[in-house]
Amino acid sequence: MKRKILIVEDDADLRRALGERLRSQDYEVVTAADGASAVATARSERPHLVLLDLGLPVGDGFTVIERLKRIPTGGNPPIVVLSARQAAPDRDRALKLGAAEYFTKPFDNDQLLRTIRELLPSDPDAPGATELHLPRLLIVEDDADTRLGLQVRLQASGFEVATAADATMALTLAHRVKPDLITLDLGLPGGDGLQVLERIRNQPGLDGVPVVVLSARDGGVHGPRALEAGAAAYLEKPVDNAKLLAAIRSALGVRQA
């Protein structure tokens, strides 16, 4: 029987990405977007494990933990917190209330899956029980909030992610981490993104790495230039998460589901 996981997350893109990733590992997934529906869903669906954000509408995550622990015959599923809150008191409070583990966003996707498997031991021959080999992405983006958002969503979608905030670090990290794909902003400190793209295309070891450009610049003007310089795709910001994942999977040669 498939193990059922309840994802409680108000960010729709992250909720969807986590769901896709867990289904690919042969888990059944149910979701909730706020505190009230989280408890109601837990009562009706009886999940084997709960992934819980703390910053929720209609009841914060701490209240949800307390209410989940009081559900009669609820089986006391382990609760794994996934939160942007980094303060030690938040972690300590969640664990004291009964959470099994606490991950700070952006979390390590590989480690999260290992933790889930430890909390939900399964048949070693079942799908997803073998060691993972995640595609490695390098995000090159100078805006910290955008960079963090991309990192969280792409990790949740099953990618290993490294990040760089400027042109110099982008090239240094590209040689160091040897990414399978690079997402590249054009407006970078320390060198224009098109110049970075051209340098990537002219450096041994990087010349074959696909690059997906993400830019606020007009795609009608700058898109053809980026594609001519060797980009695999050009997406205008704000980037739709589904379109981004489709472009990345296409560039990596991954068949769409």
Description:
- By secondary structure, this protein is α/β, with parallel strands linked by helices.
- The chain has two domains: 116 residues, 3-Layer(aba) Sandwich (Rossmann fold), CATH 3.40.50; 117 residues, Rossmann fold (3-Layer(aba) Sandwich), CATH 3.40.50.2300.
- Helix content is 42%, strand content 18%.
- It is built from ten helices and ten strands.
- The longest helix has 13 residues.
- The chain is elongated and about 60 Å long.
- The relative contact order is 0.10.
Overall mean pLDDT stands at 87
Gross morphology is elongated
Using only C-alpha atoms, the radius of gyration works out to: 20 Å
**N-to-C CA distance:** 23 Å
Q: What is the number of domains?
A: 2
Helix content: 40-55%
Name the CATH homologous superfamily of the largest domain. Answer: Response regulator
Main structural class: alpha/beta
Major β-sheet profile: 5 strands, parallel
Oligomer: single chain
**For this structure, what is the CATH class of the largest domain?**
Alpha Beta
The parts where pLDDT drops under 50 for at least 5 residues are 123-132
Query: What is the number of E strands?
Result: 10
With helices defined by DSSP (H or I, 4 residues minimum), what is the helix count? 10
Order of helices and strands: EHEHEHEHEHEHEHEHEHEH
Proper CATH architecture of the largest domain: 3-Layer(aba) Sandwich
Instruction: Identify the strand order in the major beta sheet.
Output: 2-1-3-4-5
Question: What percent of residues are in strands?
Answer: 15-25%
The CATH topology annotation of the largest domain reads as Rossmann fold
